[in-house]
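Reproducibility note. Readers wishing to regenerate the assembly model reported in the main text can use the exact inputs given here. Chain order matters: entities are listed in the order in which they were concatenated for prediction.
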Amino acid sequence: MGYYDLDDILADSAEIPCKFLHDIPGLGYLENNPGGTIHVNTQLKLPLWLARVLAIIDASSASDDVGNADIFNTEQQFTPFLNMLTPETFTNKVINAIKTDPISLDLHSINPYFYALAIKWIELFSDKDLAEIVSDLLLQRSQVINAHANSTTISYNNNSNSTSSTGNNNTTNNNHALFTLTLDEFEKKIYKEANDSYKDIKKWIYQY
Amino acid sequence: MSLPKKLQDTFSPKELQFMVENEPIKIFPRFTTRQRINKHSDDILDLYSNRWKMITMPDTALNNMVAMQSTTVTLWIALLLKQQNKCNIIAPEWLTCKALDRAIQFEQNNTRRFSPLPWDWLILSEILFKKAPDDFHDPIHELRSRIQDLREIRQLKVAKGIKYMNESHLQLDNLSILEINELRPFISGIMDKLKEIHLAAVGPEIEGDKEENDGEEIFNGTLRNDSSRQSL
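Running the prediction on these inputs yields the following structure tokens for the assembly.
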């Protein structure tokens, strides 16, 4: 979550559909209309880092000095530049897919930074329901990740029986490769760390 | 630090082995180091000339060994003496076929608990199997297969327990250091993420409340602060 966390930056570039609440002159280039005006109720996809700021800042007080203390007093007339709509990642269709079968779900194709994005989204909207769904998803998938990470075989005799066991090894490796393709980037990291740890200990026991 | 992240976060099996080698173990020495103090002896220097001096640990046990009388020394010294054929290592009580069978029985009867083996059972048994295979009363392949069984049963239980993970705490009673170490990257990673998700849903709300209460209702604010401190 640090400033230099690349995954965090990449998750921030996820596209969020937004609805503008004001006419904004000169911003038309965002919808292939250079020099034009973006009108009220235009729907556009903006990256999260931009949409978040525009959805939080009060458009009416934007002309005043920034950091006014009476932001809380003017809460009645609070209107941001735009409203964020639910992105594809969290549409009902995807949520239902998560609920029905969390394990065989191809999370990577939904969003490679699913968890990072989900956390940002939950934080923005204090969405406890989504938090519950996502943590349940992580728990369910973590069991499979652990099983896969633990089931790798290490070859401590590199030369002796490489020819006889290649066929067998290939199928298991293939399974693992296919499995890792469906993992979110965070899950991949965990899988790799867990796998390394299991492998280290297996190696130590064989050597010893 | 320039250490790889893996070594910063957790221990390598070799580091654990190093720690375990500092544990005490009982041995039968085959030679005597205890010296009879001869009051009529002229030179005291002679008395201390062939004594062992340890910088990092007490050396009384080493200098008071009597052949075939059991003494307790540190494991690495025991292994060193064993290598030179100067002692027999006494296998700990839990490392017998009978005791291991009992432990396996316990594991099978209690699906939600682990049998109370020592914290270093996996490492110690591997070390002793390798370095002192002739010091066991039971045949070593039977001991080995029982240790392997125990490990597999316990690993299966851990895998089953993963679905009870949550963002706040985890109970790992009776799991040995190697088993915990093996799980550490996985469990801490997943639990950190669960915590992040949990805090994302709950955290901002609390902060927002505090900001709103600032200056308006001091009484309420202090109450809230107290309760939050208690929960910490």
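We highlight two features of this model. The first helix of chain A runs from residue 6 to 12. The interface with chain B takes residues 1, 72, 115, 118-120, 122-123, 126-128, 130-132, 134-135, 138-140, 142-143, 145-147, 149-150, 186, 189-190, 193-194, 196-198, 200-201, 203-205, 208 of chain A (CB under 8 Å).
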